[in-house]
Fold this protein.
Amino acid sequence: MSEAETAFQIGPIAFWTILASSCIVVALALEQLYTYWTLVPRARELGGELSKILYRGDLPAARTLCERSSSPVADIFIAALNRMTTPNESLHKAAERERQRLGLWMKRRLWAIGTVGATAPFVGLFGTVVGIIRAFKDIAAAGAGGFSVVAAGVSEALVATAGGIFIAVLAVVLYNFFQARANHSTVEIRLIVDEFIEQLDGLKERGILPQNGASSIPEPARSEA
């Protein structure tokens, strides 16, 4: 196989790689949009319902609501509820650990979008180099220059360059947008969780819920034999 034929076969690889990268970026962007579009509103709704339940001091109902909820923030609330019989510090730490896990979950797709944004220009440059090589090979094969001889190779180079730059710009814009959105959602969720924790602390101070592992509900008196 000649070098010109090899270049002709390698050229489309860059094009299809760029096309596949664009599909990946679009799919990940749609998935991230859905995640951030519903995450905070569902967390606020769950936090509001829990606030009403905890106002009545109904801890079992609060746990049941969290277990039935499909919101990822429910895991934070459950972690805090599981530590209600331990000191307050453990309660805060348990909620913070789950909140950090949620933060990692929200950013789980960003690395792929950032990788496409960083590598797409180089893929386009690779296609550009292959297209130029093809153009020179066409000149050598024809034994003469002219636009008609190099048109195919130059066109392939320009398409690869334009595609790589377009996908890179799109991926970088989406990466920055979702990064900012993730940070904003993290702050919103922190506020919601802090309000929930404050309610639990208030219930403990009022003696409605157990403190430091000791139950506030007195045990029934035992009859002596």
About this structure: Confidence is low (pLDDT under 50) at residues 1-8, 211-225. The longest helix spans residues 147-205.
